[in-house]
Amino acid sequence: MTFLNGLSQPFTLLFEDDPNTSFSLPESLRSIYGGDWHIPDFSNRPYVYSNFVQSRDGRVSFSVPGHMGGGDVSGFNNHDQWLMGLLRSRADAVVMGDTTLKIEPEHLWTCEYIYPQDPSLFLELRRWENRRECPLQVFLSLEGDLNTDANVFCQEHLHIVVATTSRGAERAGDIRCQAKVEVLALGEDKVDIGRLCSVLHNDYQVKTLLCEGGPRAYGSFIAAERIDEEFLTLAPTVIGNDSSKFTRPSLVEGVAFMPESYPRSKPVSLRRAGDHLFLRSSYEYQR
C-alpha cells in the first residue's frame, strides 16, 4: 500500500505546542505532515533551522567509508527523506561543512534530489512562496580545500557560496567549474557565523537558512546563537562507538558549553512514522 507521494502512511502528530493556528503550508502538504510549520519573518537576519538524523544512542554517523551519511543512520527512511524535501523546499540557502561535501560528493542539496518520488510537490511550494528554483548552496571551509569534482560543482543552474577564512579564500579563489561560485572571506582563523548570516540576508536575500551539518558546522552555529529551530529525526538504530577504531560523532562537536551557561532546546512538536520519531524544537540562549 502506498500513500500519496511514495509514503506508506502520513505522519502521526503526537503533540504540538505552537499557538499559531493560521495556515502556512498548502493542504496537500499539511495532510501528509500532520499539521503546519510556520516560519517567522525576521527583518534583519534569516530564520535559521537545522535538520539531522540521530541514532538511538546519539550518534549521527557510522563513520565507515561508504556509510558516512545520515541515510545509513535512518535506514534511508522514506519519511525522513520526505521531511528533508519539505525542509529544503522552504530554504533560500542550505549550509553545510566541507566534510559533508567530501563524504557525499554525489549529493545536491535540493528537495528534488533527496526526494525524487514526487519532486513537483516541493518545487510547486518553492514557486508558491516566491523562492528561487534551487536554494543557494553554502559551504563552510576553514582552508578552502573543496572537492571540486563533486556533483554540485558540475551543475550550471546552481549558485555556490564558499564561506571561508582569509587563507582559505586564496585557495578557493581558483575554483573553475560549471556552477556559479562566489568565495567570501569571513574571518582570519574561523568563519564568523554571525557575519555570514548577515551577508546572506543582506547580499543574497536569504530569509530562510537550513543547516545540514556536519556536527562541527552545527556546533559553530549554536555557539554563535544562530540556530532558531532544530528538526531532528530520532532513528531506532544503535551505532555505538569504539575510539580505538574510529570516532563516531554526536550531534554537536567542536564546541563545549559550561554548566553555568549553555543553550537549551524547547520541544515544539513530535511526530511519528513507524519506528521513527520526528522532533521539532526551538532554541533558547542564555544571554
Order of helices and strands: EHEHHEHHHEEHEHEHEEE
Overall strand count: 10
Helix content: 25-40%
State the end-to-end distance: 50 Å
Q: In DSSP terms, counting alpha (H) and pi (I) runs of 4 or more, how many helices?
A: 9
Mean pLDDT across all amino acids: 93
Structural class: alpha/beta
- Uncertain runs are none
Gyration radius, in Å: 18 Å
Strand content: 15-25%
Q: Tell me about the largest β-sheet.
A: 10 strands, mixed
Global outline: globular
**Spatial strand arrangement across the major sheet:** 1-9-10-8-2-7-3-4-5-6
Layout of strands and helices, then pairs:
Blueprint: E1 12-16, H1 27-33, E2 47-54, H2 70-74, H3 78-89, E3 93-97, H4 98-103, H5 111-114, H6 119-128, E4 136-141, E5 159-164, H7 166-172, E6 180-185, H8 193-204, E7 208-211, H9 215-223, E8 229-234, E9 264-273, E10 276-284
Parallel strand pairs: 2-7, 2-8, 3-4, 3-7, 4-5, 5-6
Antiparallel strand pairs: 1-9, 8-10, 9-10
